[in-house]
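User: My collaborator sent over this chain with a note saying "see what the structure looks like." That's all I know about it. Can you take a look?
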Amino acid sequence: MAAIFVSVSMAMNAQSENPRGIYKLMSIKGKMELNPYPYDIYKIITDSVTMRFMMSDRDKRMFRIDMPDFKPFNYTGKKEITDETDTEQQIYDSDSKRFTQKWWSRGQTSPIFPENDWCYEFYESGQYSADAKPIFEALTFVPSYDPNNPLIGIWQHTITMDQLMNIDNWKDILNHLRKEGSANGENGREFHAYTSTHTVAIPLPKWRPMVDGYSYKIRYNSKDTITLGENRTRQIHWLTDDAFAIKVKVGDTEKYHIFERVKDGQTLLGYIASKFLSDGYSLN
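Assistant: Without extra context I'll predict from the sequence alone. Here is the result:
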């Protein structure tokens, strides 16, 4: 499938009033006005798909990306309500910096949203929290190869091995194992991005338009060892310039996950958007 989401632009065509880019939810006006919201929520808006990004309120390393809007997210203008049964969503005050979303709430048991009344959400672009900013940097960057720090980049988990063999020509072995796995329906669906400060992991599920990811601060001790968070040191076993193995615990055993470098120029957000659209979650 061709890339449908290469990067997120913070700018917008001057002739368009459709919000496009990454916007943070700054406040909600419902039963009460919440400013700021108890945890970070963003909308990632493209011409093809709208995704919601939510930080965990329990663990700031965790986040979720899902697709609540199953149609293009476009400007409607603020309508004067002349028909009390008209509860269509409205999107207005929209440009590259902000927009307002007005929607009809039926939240009978919600402490925030009113019952049978309008709720207002106010969004602004460029308002990343300290926790969300490095995650978005990892989700949207297109890395270039750095020989001094070759781990920086985007990687796909393609193969799992019980143990590493002493092999000279890993390139041919990986090609063979990858084809064998593909024939058995075992295509890798987990991606990791490594930036200069953080690593972000994205396991892509096969059955729902939702991704639960996580991030860690990273320290590069050398080309072969990294420290995640405060004290989780990991050994990087380089197989080729574009493939490495890392030991992980799977149940009660230890295995090696093989990661191969992604070179197609697509961002992690691009993979997620492509997955949501290609797995049958139609917007039409």
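A starting point for your reply to your collaborator: The helical segments are 132-140, 170-183, 268-278.
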